[in-house]
Specification:
Blueprint: H1 7-22, H2 30-40, H3 54-64, H4 70-76, H5 81-88, E1 101-104, E2 112-115, E3 120-122, H6 125-137, H7 146-154, H8 160-167, H9 172-178
Antiparallel strand pairs: 1-2, 2-3
Helix pairs in contact: 1-2, 2-3, 2-7, 6-7
């Protein structure tokens, strides 16, 4: 499945998985995908132009979090997670997209999993829909881009990520128009 993703789109999905793990999640959800897209901006026009910033998304997610992050828990024990990752980066490149796979289970076709050196993260139904819409919308090129992932987020107005963008005052109509998204995103 990942072979159809452009390198920037693949990096965004891997980054989303790492963000989900950092937040202590056992699955990859659409909110982590939104944050990764806002951070990496793998498309022509940055999300900032539509009122979506990585800082605002991160703040909204922090407000939703009900439990401490792994980094906070380890810091309480005197362990600096960033330092551990820095030292391990020479041994295993966790954020290298080439070391990650996005697969659909043969026996359970609705189960899509992001697998890599750090973890196996099943996609939540909303995140799976983002990926499936992106795959479908990739069009004649057959290559999934960052824009396609963003279209996947906008395809379902009930996504928590869409609610976050709305709450932060993002111009979703203009964003949808810029993406050439036929469906109304408001």
């Amino acid at each position: 499945m990942f072979t159809r993703f452009t390198p920037p789109a693949r990096r965004a999905v891997v980054r989303a998985g790492l963000l989900a793990m950092d937040a202590g999640h056992t699955a990859l959800d659409d909110r982590a995908i939104l944050l990764a897209l806002a951070e990496l901006r793998p498309f022509q026009e940055p999300l900032d132009a539509f009122g979506v910033t990585a800082a605002a998304v991160r703040a909204a997610l922090a407000g939703e979090a009900g439990r401490p992050r792994d980094a906070d828990l380890l810091a309480g024990l005197g362990i600096d997670l960033a330092e551990v990752r820095r030292r391990m980066s020479g041994l295993v490149s966790v954020d290298d997209p080439a070391r990650w796979r996005l697969t659909r289970a043969r026996l359970r076709p609705l189960r899509v999993v992001l697998s890599g050196p750090a973890a196996d993260l099943p996609l939540t139904p909303k995140a799976r829909k983002v990926v499936e819409v992106a795959l479908h919308r990739s069009g004649s090129t057959g290559r999934v881009t960052g824009e396609d992932l963003l279209r996947g987020l906008l395809a379902d107005g009930s996504n928590p990520s869409v609610r976050i963008m709305r709450r932060d005052g993002a111009d979703l109509g203009r964003l949808a128009a810029a993406l050439g998204f036929a469906r109304r995103a408001a």
